[in-house]
Specification:
Blueprint lengths: L17 E5 L3 E6 L17 H5 L7 E2 L8 E7 L2 H12 L4 E9 L6 E5 L2 E3 L7 E3 L8 E13 L5 E11 L6 H8 L26 E9 L6 E5 L5
Parallel strand pairs: 4-11
Antiparallel strand pairs: 1-2, 2-4, 3-4, 5-10, 5-11, 6-9, 7-8, 9-10, 11-12
Amino acid sequence: MSTIIDTFIAPTCHDKIEYLYQDEHLLVINKPSGLLSLSGKNPQNIDSVHYRLVPLFPECTLVHRLDFGTSGVMVIALNKAINRALCQQFSQRTVTKAYDALLCGHLQNDSGVIEAPIAKDPQHFPRMSISTTQGKAARSYYQVIERFYQTLADGTRLPLTRVRLTPETGRTHQLRIHCQYIGHPILGCDLYGGLLLSGTEHTPRLMLHACELHFIHPVSEQPMDIYLPSPF
């Protein structure tokens, strides 16, 4: 078995973490695009959500993660008991998440479900792959919000579709690889074809944003319904 070497070096992220909700038990933040959720194995990748929050909240732990390029809503547990309670909600799939995304091209259908099992791809780290033999079951739903053309500097009209994505499962890179699987990669996605369409190669970020998170507060037992508009 070959050793996986992480050669990715994250560029400096100057954007700050925005607090959306805070109490003594948990924190809900807006993670900026271009910031790691956790510090990487590569010693040059120290800056992350966790790295920035630990000095302020020494016992904080990440209940879930967002990819480096993804922005939006994340919930942070401020002690181990809250982490366990929230992790249980995620594992039981009682937490609802929704994402806004810009996809390359115009989707034919207004809505649909994507079912394709996802597996690690050690030969092409950090990519994942679709595998009916090795993959874990993964299901995502999409709803088209609008189809439009973006006019580029050279006059080229780039066809894009704005969608709302709702993952039922939470596999690594699930939404990114599922969108590629149906032939419409997320704009700006370097791993799964989002920079291949002519005119997309200079896209400034991954056009994927965690816009909604719904869970039950482990202590108050009140519904937590977090909404965060897309920045793109």
